[in-house]
Amino acid sequence: MQQLGSFDYVIVGAGSAGCLLANRLSRDANTRVLLIEAGGRDNYFWIPIPVGYLYTIANPRTDWCYKTEPDEHLAGRSIHYARGRVLGGCSSINAMIYMRGQKEDWDHWAALGNRGWAWDDVLPIFKSLEDYERGATDGYGAGGEVRIEDPRVRWEIIDAFREAAAECGIPPVKVFNSGDNFGCAYFQMNQKRGRRWSATNAFLRPVLHRKNLTVLIDAHVRKLRMNGRTAQGVEFLHRGEAQFAEARRETILAAGAIGSPQLLQLSGIGPAALLQRLQIPVVHSLPGVGENLHDHLQVRLQYKVKNVKTLNGVANSLFGKAAMAAEYFLFRTGPLTMPPSQAGAFAKSDPAQPTPNIEWHVQPLSLDKFGDPLHSFPAITPSVCNLRPSSRGWVRIKSADAAAYPEIRLNYLSTHEDRKVAVDAMRFTRRIMAAKALARYEPEEYRPGVSNDTDAELAKAAGELGTTIFHPVGTCKMGRDPMAVVDDGLRVHGVGRLRVIDASIFPRITSGNTNAPTYVIAEMGVRAILKTLQSAPN
Fold first, then answer.
1. Catalytic residue from among 294, 416, 471, 493
2. Is 471 an active-site residue?
3. What is the pLDDT of residues 51-103, one digit of tens each?
4. Count of the separate structural domains present in the chain
5. N or C: which end of the chain has fewer CB within 10 A?
6. Domain range holding 337?
């Protein structure tokens, strides 16, 4: 096995967290940093074009193309589970929607004993990273690396949905991200002048000139090299050759909620029974590695509408397609700048909820499933998801072979509570769609259809219509309980010189898209690393 070299820090995964980590840790010219990415360069034509997610998700050039295990309560279905396999990771293929989560989310993390993770602690970090196009206003920061912009296209049917939501008690708001997201608004996005603004744009590309930073692409990490319970670095394959990179100070896993637990398990760190069954020597028994997997499941209700333009009609017309392309390439506006969902709304599924626990992602389009063509009729899709699901699944390796995909089991809708929230959310959606503001468009429920009316019928329909919005978290959760994997400094419990810094450390999922919180996790991780370095004896 060839030795690539010796570095102070070895970072596995050049996604949202990894790019920020590489940027911050390489600021000191005397610190050598290696960033390893299994995917390739982010130079694919469709990555910077916002609507290009249609061509990057389920494309092996940019996506790991995982599949979940069939779920009993999803009508036995398996779901495509997109994870970025390219520089920028998921930030190169995601929905670009900028959501901090709510105050209650972060305060819950702190209440579990995670010091320094409350809303009042992380809010200044969010603001320091932000660069809002309107400047330091509307509660956002300015001058940071993470560009945030308002939408560049609006739809009459979306505006009408906002009016209908207001009739049902959900007020219009200018922006989300104040700490309480109750309300309805167009989403702000990680774009710059109508182009995707990924972690590569924000953090990696500006520092590639640094001589102390090495970025290795097309390099698949196979496992950690351990000396007892201390990480020494990583073993990986690069262009068919086995190599080793030493980490003198720390090895940092930033491979995400699927990749990080997989690498720990391959390295003998995880549930002892699983490792023994696969004949992997147990380096450290840590039962929580790979457990606590959860995600936002959205139920995609669809309505046919009349007397209004939707994307279905535009995209199914040759003239419409040409007009969209021309508008985008001439002005960087129009439908090609759209994220998958244009507007959102937050509310309580029932009054007993302490804070908004459901979110709508509203789209001026409809299709059978992701990747299929749009329907021939005009339509709107008010998808709704449970922000705080109680169902939990896992990521567990099936083999000691690092190239073999792990078992990804979500157990969506496996709790009575989650099924009740789904049913309540569907009924709430029907109330909005029946409001006066939408009457002139004559909405007709296409899916699941008004014949589904009892709680049992709606719960079954939720399973048939439900799909992921690609927010897996929690598989290396932060905390102090027996199932926690990292402490509040993101150090792996019981293992030296090893941290996990990515979305896998969420103890509980935040309210909304998870990319922005992942940036904050990376920034918090860097600060913890530097604090440890400063306190170390010379």
1. 471
2. yes
3. 999 899 999 999 999 999 999 999 999 999 999 999 999 999 999 999 999 99
4. 1
5. C
6. 2-535
